[in-house]
């Protein structure tokens, strides 16, 4: 079962307030992108990687892959306006023989191998897809501006991370449907009727959005 990873790194990351895309902000001695790229490259469950870079950052991404010796990288393609456009660009570069496509956000640099193992195992059980999730710890309220409208029961609620794994033709078909707005790939596959398993996520898969997130991730390196 060949597993291809699509690493989406084409976001602008404006909330970090830096002069470069989020994937190229420093994390330790290297651009942030180096960490998820190295982890995917070293992951025993992943065969090949397609990197999706912001326009005009394709070459720095390829050079970085070479610098860290990420030999599983097959291509670096240009991302799109939205995350879904970027995923589509990456998946278009995955060959037809791929059985599983794993989509991962470069903004979640600390990828543990055992999460990938759980996702791939779920597909072996016959699911169309699998996502890592964490239980919700806080009380959840629906608000209208700054006024509480209701308290949402927490039972059965989880927060979902990446990487997300899919049977390749299922993800391709979901991406081919037009007009859906989604912040993750599971939303697209759900809308197409796919069955998706939830597996245990990991706190370290924190998504870097702010400077404080970047500092937390740096402390966990
Ligand atoms: O913007 P957000 O943090 O939700 O992005 C999640 C991931 O999707 C990031 O790794 C980002 O680089 C990627 N992305 C992308 N193309 C976009 C927007 C986001 O590859 N147009």
Structure at a glance:
The chain is of the alpha/beta class. Helix content is 30%, strand content 26%.
Ends: how far apart? Answer: 31 Å
Query: What bound compounds does this protein have?
Result: cytidine-5'-monophosphate
Helix percent band = 25-40%
Number of DSSP E strands: 12
Q: What is the residue-mean pLDDT, rounded to a whole number?
A: 96
Largest sheet: 8 strands, mixed
Rg value: 17 Å
Spans with pLDDT under 50 lasting ≥5 residues? none
How would you name the oligomeric state of the polypeptide chains in this document? single chain
Which secondary-structure class do the elements indicate? alpha/beta
Return the string of H and E elements: EEEHEHEHEHEEEEEHHEH
The shape is: globular
Q: How much of the residues is beta strand, in percent? A: 25-35%
Query: Helix segment count?
Result: 7
